[in-house]
Specification:
By secondary structure, the protein is α/β, with parallel strands linked by helices. It has a single domain, classed as Vaccinia Virus protein VP39 (Rossmann fold), CATH 3.40.50. The chain has 9 helices and 7 strands. Strands 3-2-1-4-5-7-6 form a 7-stranded mixed beta sheet, sandwiched between helices. Bound molecules: S-adenosylmethionine. S-adenosylmethionine binds next to α1 and α4.
Length: 223
């Protein structure tokens, strides 16, 4: 169990990882409209963030952290990799950074939004749900959970190729992200779905949810 939990953040431990990660995600999304455009669209959906307290889990090299702080958000950004955090700190000096594994995420305060961008698919179900529970406790009653993550177009040769590519690139837990876009996890952790939007030609999804009764049946991804 412990070695499995350690695996996702350890993948990002090497000093060269930030450079490789930024290059990889840039080239992956280049034929899909560009990673910058996808990130800008996701952030636009979060609405005005000036003065808002945002908790960013798995901030990586800080591409979103920088955008958020530039818009005046008060960001607490968490990551388990010191090398990724080093790059994020340089990019977004106005943010507060916390180095911790998500498996042992401490209470970091009360937030208007919790952002998980391309991180939940790296976590096994038990950890993912623990993280979603912790996020729910740290969200203000009218707060929002924002998930930006992988998706696959619904059918066709490109969809099959994209799924095959992701299954080779990513850990096995990506299958759960592609299967239901975290519907079961959100339900299990008592969230109500607010919206689900397809980005990057169906290869990414933006999910918004709020802490709720958990009784609502969540819909499947709208492509
Ligand atoms: C795919 S990157 C995403 C980075 C950034 N959010 C983005 O959208 O570009 C995933 C990040 O989550 C972090 N991460 C993955 N598993 C983690 C864990 N169990 N605890 C802490 N951080 C973790 C990695 O170190 C990495 O920086």
């Amino acid at each position: 169990m412990e070695s499995h939990l350690a695996s996702s953040s350890d993948t990002y431990a090497a000093a060269w990882t930030p450079l490789v990660y930024d290059g990889l995600i840039w080239s992956m999304f280049l034929p899909l409209g560009g990673v910058g455009r996808m990130r800008d669209r996701a952030l636009a959906r979060m609405g005005p963030v000036g003065g808002r307290r945002i908790l960013e889990l798995g901030c990586g090299t800080g591409a979103l952290t920088r955008r958020l702080t530039r818009q005046g958000a008060r960001v607490t950004a968490v990551d388990g990799s010191r090398s990724m955090l080093g790059r994020a700190r340089a990019r977004a000096p106005a943010a507060t950074f916390v180095h911790t594994r998500l498996e042992i995420l401490p209470d970091l305060g009360a937030f208007d939004q919790v952002l998980c961008a391309f991180v939940l698919h790296e976590l096994p179900t038990v950890v993912r749900r623990r993280v979603l529970d912790a996020a729910s406790r740290m969200l203000r009653p009218d707060g929002r959970l924002i998930i930006l993550d992988h998706a696959a177009p619904s059918d066709g040769a490109f969809a099959r190729a994209w799924r095959g590519f992701l299954s080779r690139l990513e850990p096995p837990s990506v299958a759960e992200c592609l299967a239901d876009g975290y519907d079961r996890d959100l339900q299990a952790c008592g969230y109500d779905l607010v919206s689900r939007e397809s980005l990057a030609r169906g290869c990414a999804q933006l999910v918004m949810a709020r802490p709720g009764s958990g009784a609502t049946a969540l819909g499947s991804p709208q492509r």
